[in-house]
Specification:
With 356 residues, this protein is an alpha+beta fold. It is built from eleven helices and 14 strands. The strands form three sheets. Strands 1-2-10-7-12-5-4-3 form an eight-stranded mixed beta sheet. The structure holds fe (ii) ion. One of its GO terms (molecular function) is L-ascorbic acid binding. It comes from Corchorus capsularis.
């Protein structure tokens, strides 16, 4: 007998259908529900630890003292939180507004139009428009649809699958990718120097200009009739080296810091930057890859633009750099390719899923 699995509907179509209660696949397990609150209330909370804001204005200052102070602040945030709002990052606000406008226009197209760009995860075509497929026995789904594509290096892009509407999508997204690639280099240099490494070391270890891949995921979180029961993105750490995130100023991101979920504030003209697992491994755990998740709400659509800077899947073996390992600081991570690291995480998750 041939059995076929019906594809999960787009979350946007569920949202606009007027349902009052969400399908069971979107309801989080009981133990998770106790920590999910109203995101607008959560964002207002002023007490307790807050995601740091790092001003990069002086990161390349001519004055060594001024430059060093800026680097030390970046280092502290990378070691303590592994996530931060970066301001004065050097990418113009005008370009960022254009990127957001173009992505938003695509997201606002009718679903039938976006389906023309649908990915096909079963056949390995991962770029394009999609929604999460259940990857474990519990069939758990997330309240979001997305558009995913490689944006840098330019010779590795497949422009044929990029949105053709709006017409300036490719131009503005390409320019943003180039600017972000420059920012990634600047950050990697500073993070290297702060560990006593040569300036270009981390950049080289993650693949350099030719091999480090920038993958953009535009996350579209429709309004959710029961936001207290769902998550836009379940708790995870990023596998990337670095991740850069823009959003439409609707809160949603939460970070698991000192045993509690902390809601990131919406900081004007900032880019959220995560240290991912790749840098955590290379730095032997000195820089942190923090656990995070995304909440949804019933009042406003949230859109975020995440760019994952990732090493090549097979070409590089990731392991703690020998300079950062000693008898008193043994390696905390075994050598693995990036792909092996991803598979290891999936395996661990499946195990957890089965034991629930
Ligand atoms: Fe993430």
């Amino acid at each position: 007998m041939v059995t076929s699995v019906a594809p999960s509907p787009r979350v946007e179509s569920l949202s606009s259908s007027g349902i009052q209660s969400i399908p069971k696949e979107y309801i989080r397990p009981q133990e998770e529900l106790t920590s999910i609150g109203n995101v607008f209330e959560e964002e207002k909370k002023e007490e307790g630890p807050q995601v740091p804001t790092i001003d990069l204005k002086e990161i390349e200052s001519e004055d060594p003292e001024v430059r060093e102070k800026c680097r030390q602040e970046l280092k502290k945030a990378a070691m303590d939180w592994g996530v931060m709002h970066v301001v004065n990052h050097g990418i113009s606000d005008e370009l960022i507004q254009r990127v957001k406008k173009a992505g938003q226009k695509f997201c606002e197209l009718p679903i039938e139009e976006k389906e023309k760009y649908a990915n096909d995860q079963a056949s390995g075509k991962i770029q394009g428009y999609g929604s999460k497929l259940a990857n474990n026995a519990s069939g758990q789904l997330e309240w979001e649809d997305y558009f995913f594509h490689l944006i840098f290096p330019e010779d590795k892009r497949d422009l044929s699958i990029w949105p053709k509407i709006p017409r300036d999508y490719t131009e503005v997204t390409s320019e943003y990718a180039r600017e972000l690639r420059g920012l990634a280099s600047k950050i990697l240099s500073a993070l290297s120097i702060c560990l006593g490494l040569e300036e270009g070391r981390l950049e080289k270890e993650v693949g350099g200009m030719e091999e480090l891949l920038l993958q953009m995921k535009i996350n579209y979180y429709p309004k959710c009739p029961q936001p207290e029961l769902a998550l836009g993105v379940e708790a995870h750490t990023d596998v990337s080296a670095l991740t850069f995130i823009l959003h439409n100023m609707v809160p949603g991101l939460q970070l698991f810091y000192e045993g509690k979920w902390v809601t990131a504030k919406c900081v004007p003209n900032s880019i959220i930057m995560h240290i991912g697992d790749t840098i955590e491994i290379l730095s032997n755990g000195k820089y942190k890859s923090i656990l995070h998740r995304g909440l949804v709400n019933k009042e406003k659509v949230r859109i975020s633009w995440a760019v994952f800077c990732e090493p090549p899947k097979e070409k590089i073996i990731l392991k703690p750099l020998p300079e950062l390992v000693s008898e008193t600081e043994p390696p905390l991570f075994p050598p693995r390719t990036f792909d092996q690291h991803i598979q290891h995480k999936l395996f661990r998750k499946t195990q957890d899923g089965l034991s629930n």
